[in-house]
């Protein structure tokens, strides 16, 4: 009988008239109405919170700092180049690298691994593994120490190393060294170039926004010099030998604001690899003698500038105030209708009013100068980038964290300050990331600039054009 009674009740419910429903509602007391509204409101809030993407934070970070015996001065580099002329490269190539070194803006305290000091340099697997473990473990140790976290607190691991991929990969080496949990999510990226750090940040953001609250991701970025040294004579492939130096950085990101120091803002990535010229402007290949290296095309500065322009156009709506966007729009329309004869150029947004700090990838003085000119930045805006290039060289994707450390070591970071990071890599790939400071460093001198920050900024020699 129970099923029959249930069916009868349902039929009765479906036959309730509109008038009966209104009469029933009128019989409800204010208390009942309030309870219904509260339950409905709570349900809407719970549904909104479940579907809302979580904020992502940078808890803290750590950077590798080379020991005194890792230091490579200009005199040592010159002696090394001349010694290699008997076995690897010719005198013309050695002279070219030395001239480039003089104009590079790189100082006397950068670091290289022991394998590069050998004649000939050691480029084997064991040398790469030793260098990788040295710089990576040092950076991770510092990040864990600064956050007071234990390895078992890490829920996911993302590692980026462009040129070198070993088996087991560096992500597995970190899991083994720190005995991370068996359920840790692990990703090892290769071939991402100097944008690797920002690409990793974007990936970590995607993971944390959909994860339960309180999750943490360890991000590690580096480049291994031991395997990327070019021992040939092609000029376009000798440039990385001069600019790249040893380094690594580790970041701990979370979707919880607890102990966080920066809140992650917009992340924008622009990839122009569909264009053949862009795709081949930084190309790993073998030269005529079969020696592997990275061929840097003369078109690279122009291609990178175009990628930067597209990236900024995509980023601008998310960071610029409405007044700046309107000025850009009106300027564009005026320029468009006046045609190519217009003397006035399109209005350039005042990014220095939106961001208090800039971290531009130190790919070289020419790259930094082009970015400064394109964004209309001041020498002060570019200080962290130039000084990082001088003190540490181009450390690939990890360089941006050294620049952030420079700003903090100088005591310039304030609560609410916004930081814009921009990097480039083969592809061409241009990536940008925005951070907002939640809590300045309690000890800003505790970083890779400890012991030398008082000597910076230094005056860089002018680059004289050769006729």
From TrEMBL:
CDD domains: CHS_like
GO molecular function: acyltransferase activity, transferring groups other than amino-acyl groups
Membrane-crossing residue ranges in chain numbering: 25-48
Gene Ontology biological process terms in this record: fatty acid biosynthetic process
EC number(s) recorded for this UniProt protein: 2.3.1.-
Pathway: Lipid metabolism; fatty acid biosynthesis
Example of a GO cellular component annotation carried by this entry: membrane
InterPro entries: 3-ktacl-CoA_syn (IPR012392), ACP_syn_III_C (IPR013747), FAE1_typ3_polyketide_synth (IPR013601), Thiolase-like (IPR016039)
Keyword Acyltransferase: yes
Domain of life according to the entry: Eukaryota
UniProt-listed Pfam families: ACP_syn_III_C, FAE1_CUT1_RppA
Keyword Transmembrane on entry: yes
Domain Beta-ketoacyl-[acyl-carrier-protein] synthase III C-terminal: 356-436
SUPFAM superfamilies per UniProt: Thiolase-like (SSF53901)
Family that this chain belongs to: Belongs to the thiolase-like superfamily. Chalcone/stilbene synthases family.
PANTHER family in the cross-refs: 3-KETOACYL-COA SYNTHASE (PTHR31561)
Protein name: 3-ketoacyl-CoA synthase
């Amino acid at each position: 009988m129970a099923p029959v009674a249930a069916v009868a009740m349902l039929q009765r419910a479906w036959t309730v008239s509109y008038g009966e429903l209104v009469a029933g509602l009128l019989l409800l007391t204010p208390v009942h109405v309030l309870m219904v509204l509260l339950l409905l409101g709570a349900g809407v809030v719970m549904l909104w919170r479940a579907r809302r993407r979580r904020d992502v934070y940078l808890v803290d970070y750590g950077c590798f700092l080379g020991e005194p015996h890792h230091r490579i001065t200009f005199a040592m580099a010159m002696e090394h180049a001349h010694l290699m002329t008997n076995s690897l490269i010719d005198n013309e190539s050695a002279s070219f690298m030395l001239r480039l070194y003089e104009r590079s803006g790189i100082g006397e305290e950068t670091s290289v691994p022991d394998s590069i000091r050998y004649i000939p340099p050691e480029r084997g697997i064991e040398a790469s593994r030793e260098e990788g473990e040295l710089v990576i473990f040092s950076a991770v140790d510092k990040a864990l120490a600064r956050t007071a976290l234990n390895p078992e607190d890490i829920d996911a691991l993302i590692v980026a190393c462009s040129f070198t991929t070993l088996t087991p990969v560096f992500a597995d080496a970190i899991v083994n060294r720190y005995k991370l949990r068996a359920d840790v999510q692990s990703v090892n990226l290769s071939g991402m170039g100097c944008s690797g750090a920002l690409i990793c940040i974007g990936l970590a953001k995607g993971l944390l926004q959909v994860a339960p609250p309180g999750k943490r991701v360890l991000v590690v970025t580096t480049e291994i010099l031991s395997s990327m040294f070019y021992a040939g004579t092609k000029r376009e492939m000798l440039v990385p030998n001069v600019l790249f130096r040893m380094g690594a950085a580790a970041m701990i990101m979370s979707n919880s604001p607890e102990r966080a120091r920066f809140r992650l803002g917009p992340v924008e990535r622009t990839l122009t690899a569909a264009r053949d010229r862009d795709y081949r402007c930084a190309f790993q290949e073998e030269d005529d003698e079969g020696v592997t290296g990275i061929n840097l095309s003369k078109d690279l500065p122009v291609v990178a500038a175009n990628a930067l322009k597209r990236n900024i156009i995509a980023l601008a709506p998310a960071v610029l105030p409405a007044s700046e966007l309107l000025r850009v729009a009106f300027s564009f329309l005026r320029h468009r209708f006046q045609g190519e004869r217009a003397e006035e150029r399109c209005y350039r947004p005042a990014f220095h009013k939106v961001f208090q700090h800039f971290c531009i990838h130190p790919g070289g003085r020419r790259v930094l100068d082009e970015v400064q000119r394109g964004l209309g930045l001041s020498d002060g805006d570019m200080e962290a980038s130039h000084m990082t290039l001088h003190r540490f060289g181009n450390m690939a994707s990890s360089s941006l964290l050294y620049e952030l450390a420079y700003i903090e070591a100088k005591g310039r970071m304030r609560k609410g300050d916004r930081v814009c990071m921009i990097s480039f890599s083969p592809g061409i790939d241009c990536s940008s990331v925005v951070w907002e400071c939640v809590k300045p460093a309690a000890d800003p001198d505790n970083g890779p600039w400890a012991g030398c920050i008082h000597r910076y900024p230094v005056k860089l020699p002018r680059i004289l054009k050769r006729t």
